[in-house]
Amino acid sequence: MLGIATTASLGQWQLNRAAQKESLQASMDAQSSKHRVDAALLLATADPTTLVHQHALLRGQWLADQTVYLDNRQMHAKVGFFAVTPLALEGSGHVILVQRGWVQRNFEERDKVPAIETPSGNVTVEGRIAPPPGKLFELGTPSQGAIRQNLDLSQMQAQLQAHMLPVLLVQTGAPSEGLLRDWPAVNLGVEKHYGYALQWFGMATLMALLYLWYQFLRPYFHRTKDSKPHA
Fold first, then answer.
1. What is the pLDDT of residues 141-179, one digit of tens each?
2. How many domains does the chain have?
3. Are residues 200 and 8 in contact, defined by beta-carbon separation less than 8 angstroms?
4. How far apart are CA 211 and CA 208, in angstroms?
5. In the chain, which residues have pLDDT < 70?
């Protein structure tokens, strides 16, 4: 009975997790369908994180010498870098980090920074507002220099010495400037939770059937058999 209760509760927990992620996915879809964000709206929003997943079109100048390359990032099953360059928004003292794209690394010279193009002057960048990229396991203190394992916002803030927004712009569009931008669609793994729930409920059902057989049906058939008169 304890096993049945435990597995059934685990199945219900997986269903609840699936419902939570479906709600989050609906919220993300609603955000992405809203009107496109420009610099004026972005700067006027008290909490820019509320704009996450919305499309944006921003104009400014690249701070090319402050570009960092996030190591061990994959695209098309190949390992390389995410190139992140600060964009100084036009007509303001604000900076937003832009995840510009992916570039393959040089495995013969692992410390060599890949060659990408960074236009000078004012540029217009299209993308979507996003939280900072997920962090990978890293030993010790956050790395510095051009090649880094993770993006540390406080470290970048100190490096830039400018007002940096707490969100990222993931640049979208066709490959350009030596960078690929085939970003995968966000998959929250809702189907996985339904699969786990089915497994847990299946185990609960199996234990319930075994309990019913050994505690009630099997003894009943034995008693019935023993009570029959012998020829």
1. 666 788 998 988 888 888 888 899 999 999 999 999 999
2. 2
3. yes
4. 5
5. 139-143, 226-231
